[in-house]
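User: My collaborator sent over this chain with a note saying "see what the structure looks like." That's all I know about it. Can you take a look?
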Amino acid sequence: MIQRTEYYRKIIHIFNLVIPFTYLFFFESRFQVLRILVPLTVFAIVIEYLRVHSVIIKKIFDNFLISMLRLHEMDGKYTGATWVFIGSTLTVAVFPKEIAVISLIYMSIGDTVAGLVGRKFGKMKFYDKTIEGSLAGLIVCLLSGYLVQLSLPLVVVFSGAFAAMFIELLPISIDDNLSVPLFAGTIMVIASTVVI
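Assistant: Without extra context I'll predict from the sequence alone. Here is the result:
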């Protein structure tokens, strides 16, 4: 059974699509996007610091968001939202626009579907993840990559989908909101140098 708060987290995670789609449709250059993302990321990091070190901010945070936090986030680790900002900022800063957009879509959609399907239907465990969840995430990434493809060859887009769900499945201590877009983007850059 999936708790209601987990559904809320995943709905918020889907709303992260505003970042890649805003970049794709409204901004020409990464610098325009970074002028928005960098201050938001810094603000998120400051809030993370204050929620641990300021009694007032901690109380406000606990009153409104404590039910949505995971145990490690309650213990003072960065929240998933902050990692989304960090991962998005780095992805936009490092990768060409089309690769950054697709990598961020994979982070938002693939990770969300993998988590929900894995928790609801997952039977084959791989550490704290499930094979079913990762396969569902892969299917959604492949489909979304195909639909959004832009001008990248499909082999490049699909290599990113496989990379995103591979890194999502691995039991590493790096947050998925950072590892998924950076790893998927790196693999797509490598694939594009081979294919193009």
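A starting point for your reply to your collaborator: The mean pLDDT is 91.
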